[in-house]
Amino acid sequence: MKLRDSNITKLKHQRFDVLIIGGGINGAVSASALAARGVSVALIDRGDFAGFTSQHSSNLAWGGIKYMESGEYGLVRKLCMSRNHLIRSYPSTIREVRFFTTVQRGFRWHPLILWLGTWLYWLIGNGFTRKPRFLSRRVIEAGEPAIITEGLSGGFEYSDAYLYDNDARFVFNFIRAALNYGCIAANYVESLGAERVPSGTDFEWQTRARDQVSGEAFVIHSRVLINAAGPFVDEHNRLTGETTRHRHVFSKGIHLIVPRLTPRHRVLAFFADDGRLFFAIPMGNRTCIGTTDTRVDSPCVQVTDEDRRFVLGNINKRLRLARPLGPADIIIERCGVRPLAVKGGNGADRDFLQLSRKHAVEANHEHRHISIFGGKLTDCLNVGDEICGAVNRLGVCIQHAGFRWYGEPPVAVREEFLHQARLMNLDGYTAPESSEPLSRRLWRRYGAQAIGLLENIREDPREAEVLITGTEYIRCELRQAARREMIVKLDDFLRRRSKIALVERHEVIRHSPGLMDACHILFGDQAQARHDEYFRENG
Ligand SMILES: Cc1cc2nc3c(=O)[nH]c(=O)nc-3n(C[C@H](O)[C@H](O)[C@H](O)COP(=O)(O)OP(=O)(O)OC[C@H]3O[C@@H](n4cnc5c(N)ncnc54)[C@H](O)[C@@H]3O)c2cc1C
Hints:
Strand 8 (189-199) and strand 9 (202-211) form a beta hairpin. With 539 residues, this protein is α+β, with helices and mostly antiparallel strands. The strands form 2 sheets. Strands 3, 4, 5, 6, 11, 12, 13, 14, 15 and 16 form a 10-stranded mixed β-sheet that branches. The chain is built from 18 helices and 18 strands. The radius of gyration is 23 Å and the shape is globular. 35% of the residues lie in helices and 24% in strands. Flavin-adenine dinucleotide binds at residues 21-27, 44-47, 51-54, 56-60, 190-191, 228-232, 236, 253, 291, 336-339, 375-378. Flavin-adenine dinucleotide (FAD) binds next to helix 2, strand 8 and strand 16.
């Protein structure tokens, strides 16, 4: 807790150029871009970083192929460019993956038309990925025996990209980068609203904050306020008296994680009973299936029996499994709302599924206030750049405007890491249950910081032992997480910094030898309390 405690002290005593409310993807990239370019920036989230919408996505960095049908070619072009930019900037984290898509007879489009559409999609994306391919029934049968081919008219295969680790880890790495560049960030600190208070001949924003752990209230001072509260942007604007041209409507989406459905490493895509694209996405030795798209009025949602029936029913209808999937096969459920930006009174009346998924950055120059509406993980680098521009236009000097604030460390650093890893035979320590060599995983998760882990293991090889049996996380990773990853609750580690709680059943985690050791490393003398709190809150 040292890092968090010292940051909270700084939040109370410093005056910042910019305060960001919300540590989902939009807040995280804004903090990272601004801090890297020399702006003094603070960020707070009332839960954990990426603890709301940004932990419930489909983990895809995609060009929005489905928006081709609504003719939103401008949006598709933009998303394809963002996807390509992400793949180039994060080659270890964001990987191209094939979408093996099948089409039922009588579907609104013939597979040949859809296949031609995938060529257009490929061209719009500058031909950056592997080429699309038409799938006849025979090719589908040979390529994926799990698919029920009766009633199929054919299919097609195309490429997009996915996040190899979970979405929340991807977001946290932007928070971590922001901290490296001097951002003062703290999780579990809520904004209760902000007001503009005269300061000399000017004014400043004073945000009333409450530390959710200690209960202490304090004020954060800043010149600019950025509202990146995701589905709560409108609510926070009401608290501060800001009126905006945009507002949010919400679309609920769920995913179910089940044991791996097929050994082939690709996404199986179908058109579900509601006509929407529906995916079975690989997640190590699990499969993540979904999603749904239901209009809701509140951001706080739960998986219903109807949602479960829809997802399981669609999979069972399309895949030939040893036995149909049932509720007992569900390892974990994920459920969130997409905050969709609409302007003024528009949008609510339009066909809900056709609502555009573009983001909007809306600035009030007089109030030096910015709201970020909508958005996608895929578009996150653009959001960071746009926020730098918007903050600059509000009168904040961006000292290092040309600095490249994102991306993996240079190739030379990676080569150095891999060379050191080879010399000490790091991959020899890879756990049998691990899906990849240890060196690859450490580099992807920690980048340049992984070099320090090598030193820990050289000093004491026990640092390479897997701590929580059945997972791949090793002792020195937990020590590093305790120091650098601001873990307040056990869920922060199990669900977001790592993906243990996404792929392991609750009961397995509960009885895993080593869990208590992990709690001691993460929480010291609070270990038992944090352990009990996790199992109380998570059933
Ligand atoms: C089912 C589903 C599937 C999706 N799939 C994809 C996909 O495959 N690819 C893709 O690119 N995008 C996808 N998205 C979209 C993407 O996940 C979201 O657009 C994105 O995560 C939203 O991020 P955000 O930062 O705006 O909001 P959030 O992640 O919700 O972050 C907002 C944060 O603000 C905090 N906050 C709120 N109020 C306060 C307050 N008063 N004080 C302090 N903090 C506060 C919250 O705690 C929260 O952490 C999907 C979304 C859903 C729901």
